[in-house]
Amino acid sequence: MVAGVADGVDGPWDREEIPLEDDLYMRVHKERVADDGKPEAGVFTNRLIEGVRHPMSTDWSRYSSPEETRARATGHRPPLDYGVIRMNVGDIEDIPQTVEHDPVFSAPADPNNPNNRAHTVVRGAKSKKPDERASPKVRLRFRSICSWILDPPGRTTGQGPPL
Amino acid sequence: MSHVAVEPSVGIGHEWLAFLVHGKPVDPFVGSGSMRDASNQPAPWQTVEDVQKMLARDRVANEASRSVVSRPTPQPTALQNLFDELSKRPRRSAPPPVQVWGFAVPAALSGFVDPINRSRAMLDLGDNWDGEGSLGYDESTWRRAIELAIEIAHRFWRNRWDRPLTPMIMKGPEGSIDLLWQTPRRELLLNVSTDVEEPATFYGHDRAVQRRTVEGKLDPAERNEWLLVWLTE
Fold first, then answer.
1. Is B169 helix (H, G, I), strand (E, B) or coil?
2. Could you tell me which residues come within 8 angstroms of residue A36 by beta carbon, excluding any fewer than 6 positions away?
3. pTM for the complete prediction?
4. What is the pLDDT of residues A33-85, one digit of tens each?
5. Interface test with chain B among A43, A85, A121, by most B beta carbons within 10 Å
6. Among B172, B205, B215, whose Cβ lies nearest the Cβ of A42?
7. Which of A143, B94, B99, B219 has its CB 3.0 to 4.6 Å from that of B31, i.e. a possible disulfide?
8. Of A48, A135, A137, Cβ closest to residue B133
């Protein structure tokens, strides 16, 4: 079913299976860069919003570019305050974590939660308590598999090479 | 710091054996290494003067034995060489700890000063400071994390006479604090919760041997310097 035809936006979108060889992109605020240039381990966790834990949000590289991921920053923070990291889906599932395509769509669009076909969530695969924050083990492993694809401000080593 | 080899020609008493067995030479110029002998009594050789007295006693014993049995003049021993070396050094008291934001950082852990100073900036962040819903950071949590890091490092240094690694002090999830130690071979992440009742949680792994890991919870009130021993072995 197509909605929002007047503004040319198609949707809602079906959930899709994400191939292991694809990447996910995630925004990282400039204050989240550690002294060694990598993202702080605290970046990799479920988000606690108003007492409810939400899985980690990312964008699927098939439907988003790194620049688009950065531009989706909300909460009145300028997009240029963020960098973007890249993580391979296969590496994420080896942690182990579960990757689920979760496109966001509403008509009319919600400015606080814009439509996003690329939206993908990452959940703990075998967490004993689904509402727990991610363990040091999981967060350290995420940190080891990520790499910058768009540097945050203040980090001048250039894009990309795995850290 | 090297160990001292013992020459058999020098009369050695029980105290010296303990000194050598434990392999913890006392450096009177660093601080009050409170050494004990094997019977757990305070060792007598706390200062250069103590070393002098014991060597003098040994020399007397050697002189007495030579008068009964003819022996060659003993060569300077490693112990005598150590005494000579220590005597040449200028004497100074242990440097005072460095005061940083209310933390008394032992001089041997001076590498902690910059990370503590830099990490304090997180206390100025309010809720949702990153636009992603992250909570701000409470000073009490920050203090507990740093006190734990200093305690672990200080115990490691006192037991090993090896300067400990300095952790990165990072913003953890939901207002918690992360401490991350790294070596070329291993890394260890320790998380201190906002809840004082919750134990700290940790995970460490070897980059080369993936199955070599440590993981668990710890009580900050207990001795935890073994974490750094594992990290640096």
1. strand
2. A163, B168, B182
3. 0.72
4. 999 999 999 999 888 777 778 899 999 999 999 999 999 987 668 899 999 99
5. A43
6. B172
7. B94
8. A48
